[in-house]
Specification:
Helices cover 39% and strands 18% of the residues. The protein is an alpha/beta fold. It folds into two domains: 186 residues, 3-Layer(aba) Sandwich (Rossmann fold), CATH 3.40.50; 150 residues, Glycogen Phosphorylase B (Rossmann fold, 3-Layer(aba) Sandwich), CATH 3.40.50.2000. An eight-stranded mixed β-sheet has the order 3-4-2-1-5-6-7-8, with helices on both faces. It has a six-stranded parallel β-sheet with strand order 11-10-9-12-13-14, sandwiched between helices. β1, α1 and β2 form a beta-alpha-beta unit. The longest helix is centred in the first third of the chain and has 15 residues. It is globular.
């Protein structure tokens, strides 16, 4: 098959040319490794120069709408897609790229696939025209894939024809494997004998992060030695909390070390239009590293954890979250469902694409 992926260049603020990761990189890479011809159009609006590179058997082309202007950007997209002559155009990374993939599929006569890992409509709930374009792409797509069954059900409600929405779950990147805890702490300049609970990800009140600091306060009242290790740069009021440590933004290669340095990883998701359909990559990574996890029990997270109640806490219950943290620190538990891999996900995508050829 000739597969054309259409994606934003910087999902989660990571440039896929310079910092390849996640489903945006590994699904094209693995499909190319299975003998398919794969091209990825990466779109941006940051005034970046056009770029073309060959990486992992895939041709990656970056086009920037601010650099080219809207008309030239459209022409370049059509020229790139037409010269490749894809069998499938696959849109991923948010609402714009479902619509853009649909537009290119019509112009090239290719089949259309749309992939969603979040409820993209929750990103900008006020942008109704874009949501309508997204739903139109979902309706007309020959194949729609979603990161979990809850999101698949939501997307299925927009469809009137074609096969049911297929689940293509999230997975951890290959570098997330168990490592020696003491060695990871030494490499990161952390105290080897400390007790660390951690939260790896952006700090956002709208996504429930405030619950974590409340739960940590309660847990630390029972265990004064407890420390909360945060990645990135959380707000000043969080850093002012006793026992909170921030690592700053770490190089990608050190992120697996950070997870493996923890005694416990926390995953916090809010009961919102975004949170109810969120399948956190950080949860996949913690499970792949065999780190004990405590997580808020949205249906999506419950599904990811295979319903293992020992890792789950009711939404909004800071006291229960604190108690579960303390319980898992006293009796660590890493009983999880089988770890998902991008190889399995890519195989499932290949099967679905071939079944419609």
């Amino acid at each position: 098959m000739r597969l054309l992926f259409v994606c934003k260049r910087r999902p989660q603020q990571r440039d896929l040319i310079e910092r390849p990761y996640g489903r945006f990189h590994h699904l094209p890479r693995l499909l190319a490794a299975r003998g398919h011809e794969v091209k990825v159009l990466l779109c941006s609006h940051h005034g970046l120069p056009e770029v073309q590179v060959s990486l992992a058997g895939v041709e990656w082309t970056g086009l920037d709408v601010r650099t080219l202007g809207i008309r030239c950007f459209q022409q370049a997209m059509v020229q790139q897609a037409s010269s490749f002559a894809p069998d499938w155009v696959i849109g991923c990374s948010d609402t714009w790229y479902g619509w853009l993939a649909s537009w290119l599929a019509r112009r090239t006569g290719a089949r259309l696939a749309v992939d969603a890992y979040d409820n993209f409509e929750a990103y900008m709930p006020w942008n109704l025209p874009v949501h309508q374009l997204w739903r139109h792409a979902v309706r007309r797509a020959d194949l729609v894939t979603a990161a979990g069954p809850q999101l698949a059900e939501l997307l299925q409600s927009h469809r009137r024809r074609g096969p049911p929405v297929t689940v293509l779950p999230m997975a951890a990147d290959p570098e997330f494997v168990p490592q020696d805890k003491a060695a990871c702490r030494q490499a990161l300049g952390l105290a080897v004998q400390a007790t660390y609970v951690g939260y790896v990800g952006s700090w956002s009140v709208s996504r429930g992060s405030s619950l974590l600091i409340d739960a940590f306060r309660r847990a630390r009242a029972a265990r004064p030695d407890l420390q909360l290790l945060l990645s990135g740069r959380p707000p000043r009021e969080v850093l002012d909390e006793s026992g909170v440590i921030a690592t700053g933004y770490l190089p990608d290669a050190q992120l697996p070390m950070l997870l493996n340095a923890l005694d416990l990883a926390c995953v916090v998701v809010a009961d919102t239009g975004f949170g109810r359909y969120s399948y956190p990559a950080k949860l996949c990574e913690a499970m792949a590293c065999h780190i004990p996890v405590v997580a808020t029990a949205t249906e999506a997270v419950r599904w990811m954890l295979g319903g293992h109640a020992e890792h789950l806490v009711l939404l909004g219950d800071a006291q229960a979250f604190a108690e579960r943290m303390l319980g898992l620190l006293d009796t660590p538990n890493v009983e999880y469902p089988p770890v998902q891999t991008w190889e399995r996900v890519a195989t499932e995508l290949e099967v679905r694409l071939l079944s419609i050829m």
